[in-house]
Design brief:
The radius of gyration is 15 Å and the shape is globular. It has 4 helices and 2 strands. It has a domain of about 70 residues. The longest helix has 19 residues. The protein is mostly helical and about 120 residues long. A two-stranded parallel sheet has the order 1-2.
C-alpha cells in the first residue's frame, strides 16, 4: 500500500508504534493527512472512514473490556463522531453505553448514519 506524503515518525519522535512495526500510532496532523488522502485521492467517503474508525474502536473495546458500562467523552469534531459510532456499535452488541458531551456541540450528524437519532 502506498502511504500518503506525511511520513511515519522516526524513532524518538512523539508518535510511537504499537503491536508491530506495520501498525503506527499517528499524530493528529498525520492522521488528517491520511484521511485527506483517502477522501481526495482514493474516493473513500468521509462517513465510511468514520464508520470504519468507530467500529474498529468498538471491536478493541469489546475485546479489552468485555463486561460493564462503556462511557465515552464525545467532542464536537470527527473524533467525537468516531466515539458515537463506537458507542452505537457496542450498544447494538448489547452493551450498556453512555455518551458524555465534551465539546460545545455534537459532531456533524450528516456523517453519522443516524447515530444521533439512535443514541
Amino acid at each position: 500500500m502506498t502511504r500518503p506524503a506525511t511520513p511515519i515518525p522516526a524513532a524518538g519522535q512523539p508518535a510511537r508504534f504499537t503491536g508491530s512495526d506495520d501498525v503506527p500510532v499517528l499524530t493528529a496532523a498525520q492522521m488528517q493527512a491520511w484521511d485527506a488522502d483517502a477522501i481526495e485521492r482514493r474516493g473513500v467517503p468521509q462517513p465510511v472512514l468514520m464508520e470504519s474508525a468507530g467500529r474498529a474502536v468498538a471491536a478493541v473495546v469489546q475485546r479489552l473490556y468485555p463486561d460493564g458500562r462503556i462511557t465515552a467523552a464525545v467532542g464536537s469534531g470527527n473524533n467525537g463522531g468516531d466515539a458515537l459510532v463506537a458507542l452505537r456499535t457496542l450498544r447494538a452488541w448489547g452493551r450498556d453505553v453512555v455518551a458524555v458531551q465534551a465539546g460545545g456541540s455534537m459532531p456533524d450528524g450528516g456523517l453519522l448514519h443516524g447515530t444521533l437519532e439512535i443514541m
